[in-house]
Each structure stands twice: as structure tokens, then as C-alpha cells.
Amino acid sequence: MVKKIETAIFGAGCFWGVEESFRTLKGVISTEVGYSGGKFKNPSYEDVCSGDTGHAETVRIKFDAEIISYEKLLDIFWEIHDPTTLNMQGPDIGEQYRSIIFYHNKEQKDSAEKSKAKLEKKGMKIVTEIVPASEFYKAEEYHQKYLFKKGAKVCH
């Protein structure tokens, strides 16, 4: 069977926990944490934490769409964070922790908008941004698979 490799990029708070939520799913080929959506080239963690770059902490997911759908990834994205809080998740506060979906094509955009609208019909006020994918800057190596390396499943 030929693999249908696609990419998803999500921001849902601290990227350590977001990565761990997707890392071991059947059909996920790889995950990387990094920075997306900002105006600063090659930002460091310290740059992003300053709040001056406009980047969000994100996870880039390579997945086999024949095994796991983008829609299933969206379902998990909505479940693992609070998409109703602006620029914060739990104790993490700042623009870098915002809820955001970076789409790579019209199909992803349509799926993301449809899934967001479904939640809004339930009465939720969703603040999640849905924007075209931009440059993804891989975070420093010590951030990659951080929780896995520490033997933890969640940040908080």
C-alpha cells in the first residue's frame, strides 16, 4: 500500500504536551515541536517567550492519511486544550500559547472551519485561529519529545 503522507501544524498551548498527545497515534509518522506564525526569522525559545516575535508554540505532524485522517487529528486537537481562552492554556499565558491551526491546502482549511463551526453550534465561543501554514522553525533539540524523554505524559 502506498502511503499518503500529509502535514498538520497545530498550536494548543505548551508544545511539549501537544506533541505527546499526537506522537504515538497510529498513522502518525513523526512529530516536531517548533514555532509558527511569527514575523521573526529563526527564533529561539527565548525570542518566542519574549512575546515580540508573533510566533506560536506549535507541533508539526507528518501523518499517513490512509491510516489516520486530518479530521481525526482535528478531533484530538480540540480535545487536548481549551479553544475558548485567548492566548493562554492553563497556567501558560502569552501569545505563543494561542490556539491556532495552520492549514496546508483547501481541504484542510475546509475541514478545520467545519470542525470549529460544529463546536460553535454547541454554544462554545472558539477563539482558535485558522490560517495558512507559514514557515515552521524547528525548536531546539532539548524541546523535541521532551515529555517522552522525561517519562511524563502531561505538562501540568
Summarize the structure.
The mean pLDDT is 95.
Structural overview:
The model has no long low-confidence stretch (mean pLDDT 95). This protein starts with a strand and ends in a 6-residue tail after the last helix. It has helices at 15-23, 45-49, 70-79, 106-121, 146-150; strands spanning 5-12, 28-36, 56-64, 88-89, 92-93, 99-103, 129-132, 136-138. It contains five helices and eight strands, in the order E-H-E-H-E-H-E-E-E-H-E-E-H. The protein has 156 residues and is α+β, with helices and mostly antiparallel strands. Helix 4 (106-121) links the parallel strand 6 (99-103) and strand 7. Strands 7-6-1-3-2-8 form a six-stranded mixed β-sheet, covered by helices on one side. Strands 4-5 form a two-stranded antiparallel sheet. The chain has a single domain (5-150), classed as 2-Layer Sandwich (Peptide Methionine Sulfoxide Reductase, Chain A), CATH 3.30.1060.
